[in-house]
Design goal:
alpha/beta; 9 helices
């Protein structure tokens, strides 16, 4: 059984150290506790230890856990989202990290209007490495997505998200993080309408310190908090 309190203390300390290396403090980095496959009881224990942001990969898991988890937390959908499932979580999540098409963006807008959600925060998922097995758009497609978002009323683009390939070396991973941070800064300086570059979501249990050092201000950490996932 994972010692969630101890693990969270360790993760927070590591975030603090990494943030200092990048000239920031721990409060500048949002920790999203990724609860994939873990039961509501473990999530509630993490909430008791101060966790306020919960990340789930699948719509079905949000629906199964939503009423069992303590209130007052912000739910994040961080996994791939199909357009036909947007309607199930549009009024439950604080942010959708994995928007990778104009079609999905339009469906989120449509469902938000239908369900009376005045604003839904999204991140554009960028496949920074070009790995074919990863979701996300190419960096060259970001501007098209941002241009499309200008006219939307409910959808608010609040930043970028990326997942690194598992096969790259540490050096090239750091470069991927660095490159997407530079893109994040460029967009911030361009002052797009309806675009607020508030969050750069990158870094998971195996690389969140490196990601923070390279500019990430939102990390998605699961295994380092809750232990190995149970897929049985």
């Amino acid at each position: 059984m994972a010692d969630i309190e101890k693990n969270l203390a360790d993760v927070r300390k590591r975030i603090e150290i990494a943030a200092k290396k990048s000239g920031r403090c721990a409060d500048d980095v949002t920790l999203v506790a990724v609860t994939k496959t873990h039961p509501a009881e473990m999530i509630n224990e993490a909430i008791d230890c101060g966790v306020r942001d919960i990340g789930e990969n699948k719509v079905q898991e949000i629906l199964e856990k939503y009423d069992k988890v303590k209130k007052g937390v912000r739910w994040h959908l961080i996994g791939h989202l199909q357009t036909n499932k947007v309607k199930y979580i549009i009024d439950k999540v604080y942010m959708i990290h994995s928007v990778d098409s104009v079609k999905l963006m339009d469906e989120i807008e449509r469902q938000a209007e239908k369900h009376g959600v005045s604003q839904i925060k999204i991140l554009i998922e960028v496949n920074i490495s070009g790995e074919e097995t990863k979701f996300g758009i190419a960096p060259s497609e970001i501007d098209e997505m941002l241009d499309h978002a200008k006219a939307l009323k409910c959808v608010k683009v609040c930043g970028l998200m990326t997942i690194l390939p598992k096969i790259d070396s540490g050096i090239s991973n750091r470069l991927h993080f660095h490159n997407i941070y530079n893109k994040f800064v460029d967009i911030s300086q361009n002052k797009y309408d309806n675009i607020d570059m508030e969050f750069l979501s990158m870094g998971m249990s195996g690389d969140f310190e490196m990601a923070i050092e390279e500019g990430s201000n939102m990390v998605r950490v699961g295994t380092a908090i809750f232990g190995e996932r149970d897929y049985s």
